[in-house]
């Protein structure tokens, strides 16, 4: 649903009402920066894994709207890459939470600890997706955020500065969760009795891992496909559609 809202900006609001988009750009950029910074703090305060991931998704979607409303090629392409990447990463992380919930019937971070000792294969996948969510270079989560930050730098240094803070906050809440859920000693009997992922779960997580790493190391298939559309949209928006005198 988050990506659907962002898609509507690209497909409807910006092409159909370019003058309104320019007029409200400052408002949208302000909301985006608030979303990036404030919601990252909200995610940091969560004790439920699913809620933490959900709030981190809102924070990352602030990157998408920021990239759209700075109106330059790097920002817009970064927004599109971030939307696609986030679809893979958030799906993978929610699936990881589902795997744990299916076995322990709890989403509370405090209910876990030392999962890597009993589910090493699953822990490897989960940590990979968590690092991608934090924007680790080499994963698809890094590419979109980096392009948006570069585009923001061309418009206003402080936009880029505030947007880059989410890389710090994202690492903070992600590593906080990873440390308490996966590493350390086995916390309780529920964790001690955990069984590692089966073939079906391995296949699904493996496909998502390939996509996250593939687009992180070689994002050209996405950027080359969207480049012409981005250029055309920005060219369309460069000229006012209002009658003379408005």
Brief synopsis:
The protein is mainly alpha-helical and 246 residues long. The protein is built from 12 helices and no strands. Helix content is 79%, strand content 0%.
Instruction: Report the principal-axis shape.
Output: elongated
The whole-number mean of residue pLDDT values reads: 90
What is the end-to-end distance? 35 Å
- Assembly form of the protein: single chain
Helix share, percent:
over 70%
User: Hey, roughly how much beta strand do the residues contain?
Assistant: under 5%
Q: Which series of helices and strands comes N to C?
A: HHHHHHHHHHHH
Task: Give the helix tally.
Answer: 12
Tally of structural domains = 1
Unreliable spans are none
What would you say this structure looks like, in words?
It is a single chain. By secondary structure, the chain is mainly alpha-helical. It is built from twelve helices and no strands. It has one domain. Helix 5 packs across helix 12. The protein is elongated.
SSE topology sketch:
Layout: H1 2-16, H2 18-23, H3 25-44, H4 49-69, H5 73-104, H6 115-118, H7 120-133, H8 140-155, H9 157-182, H10 189-192, H11 199-217, H12 220-237
């Amino acid at each position: 649903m988050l990506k659907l809202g962002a898609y509507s900006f690209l497909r409807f609001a910006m092409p159909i009402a370019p003058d309104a988009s320019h007029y409200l750009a400052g408002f949208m950029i302000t909301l985006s920066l608030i979303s990036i910074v404030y919601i990252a703090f909200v995610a940091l305060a969560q004790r439920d894994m699913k809620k933490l991931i959900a709030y981190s998704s809102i924070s990352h979607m602030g990157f998408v709207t920021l990239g759209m409303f700075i109106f330059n090629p790097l920002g817009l392409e970064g927004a599109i890459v971030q939307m696609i990447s986030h679809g893979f990463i958030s799906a993978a992380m929610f699936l990881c939470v589902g795997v744990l919930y299916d076995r322990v019937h709890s989403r509370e971070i405090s209910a876990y600890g030392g999962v890597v000792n009993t589910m090493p294969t699953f822990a490897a996948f989960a940590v990979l997706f968590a690092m991608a969510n934090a924007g680790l270079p080499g994963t698809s989560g890094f590419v979109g955020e980096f392009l948006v930050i570069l585009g923001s730098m061309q418009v206003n240094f402080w936009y880029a500065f505030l947007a880059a803070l989410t890389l710090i906050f994202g690492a903070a809440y992600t590593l906080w969760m990873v440390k308490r859920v996966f590493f350390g000693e086995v916390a309780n009997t529920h964790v001690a009795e955990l069984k590692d992922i089966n073939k079906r779960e391995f296949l699904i997580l493996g496909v998502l891992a390939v996509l996250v790493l593939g687009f992180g190391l070689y994002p050209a298939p996405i950027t080359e496909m969207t480049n012409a559309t981005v250029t055309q949209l920005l060219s369309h928006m460069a000229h006012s559609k209002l009658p003379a005198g408005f």
